[in-house]
Design a protein that fits this description.
Elements lengths: L5 E6 L2 H11 L3 E7 L5 E7 L2 E7 L9
Parallel strand pairs: 1-4
Antiparallel strand pairs: 2-3, 3-4
């Protein structure tokens, strides 16, 4: 069981987003996966907060 805070959000490509976050923030990568069909997700820790980023190709948002 995880205790604390987790932030969940969706982007077009979470692995590309992860590379950008590594450049901007001091993060610790917990897990990064790439599934068939372009699906990917990643978890990282930023300032004691667990961040879950999931990919969805059919969203309207900023592209990474």
């Amino acid at each position: 069981m995880i205790k604390g805070t987790e932030i969940d959000f969706v982007v077009r490509n979470s692995l590309k987003a992860l590379e950008l976050y590594k450049e901007i923030f001091d993060i610790k990568v917990v897990e990064a996966t790439e599934y068939p069909g372009g699906s990917s997700q990643q978890f990282h820790i930023r300032r004691s907060v667990r961040v879950h980023v999931d990919a969805a190709s059919n969203i309207s948002s900023l592209e990474f």
